[in-house]
Amino acid sequence: MPPLVLAYHAVSERWEHALSVAPAALARHVGGLVRRGHRPASLDDVLAGRAGRSLHVTFDDAFASTGAGLDALARLGVPATIFACTGYTDGGSVFAVPELALEAAAQPTELATMDWAALRAAVAAGVEIGSHTVSHARLTRLGDGELEVELKDSRRRLEDELGVRCRVLAYPYGEHDARVRRAAALAGYSAAFALSGSEGRRDPFALPRVGVYRGESALRLALKTRPFTLRVGAATLRALGVRSRGR
After folding, report:
1. I need a labelling partner for 199 at 20 to 30 A (CA). Which of 127, 175, 208, 244 fits?
2. pLDDT band, residue 197 (cuts 50/70/90)
3. CATH of the domain at 118
């Protein structure tokens, strides 16, 4: 059984959006998996593909509210990785990507991102920081030069600001293809994460995660995290009604 990696975004009671999970819900999700025998796993464990019922948690977009999720994980002893977009990190900018523009205008506090000081504090607490590119672009639609900038500049900025190696990337929207995966490798990453399940051999530049969203029932999450479900592709997940809503 491959490592189970969960993908969250914001962690907030107040922002009632699919990307925002309440802190208590996150604690129930992760705590339930631990009680069912999943072993907390470091990013190194995940990258090594160590078999067994292991569990790692990730947060895309580096929302400021991620801190509430980190607190819950610390109590459970589960390691985490945060994927940050460097173009939004200066001053903790509002994450106003086109799909969230209306939400950002209406609730800017809820869509504020972690600034460099917050990311440094997370590193000091043992959290891994990965790249989510510079601007959260749809990588498969970029030209080669633009793609290189999104991947290389974000990694270098994270390393310069945080003083630690940036080893991993999470594809915005979970979107990738052979060209993007090849560019990620050439940009110096050790691995990259997608969102939906994968088929065939293990590809370190298409590591699967299970996206978790607001309102997920215990039954739905149990289905999404079953070993069988983790092995099937996105088309099968959609047929089962388990839809990927990655951002």
Report:
1. 127
2. low
3. 3.20.20.370
Estimate to the nearest angstrom the gap between the alpha carbon of 231 and the chain centroid: 19
- What is the value of pTM for the model shown? 0.91
Which residue is associated with the tokens 């092995």?
Answer: 231
Q: pLDDT band at residue 201, thresholds of 50, 70 and 90?
A: low
Q: What distance in Å separates the CA atoms of residue 211 and residue 6, rounded to the nearest whole number?
A: 6
Q: What angle do CA 166, 170, 171 make, to 5 degrees?
A: 135
Distance CA 92, CA 98 (A): 18
Structural domain of residue 135, as residue ranges? Answer: 4-239
Number of domains in the chain: 1
Residue 246 lies in a domain: no
**Element spanning 230, H or E:** helix 227-231
Of 98, 227, 228, 223, give the one whose Cα is nearest residue 172. 98
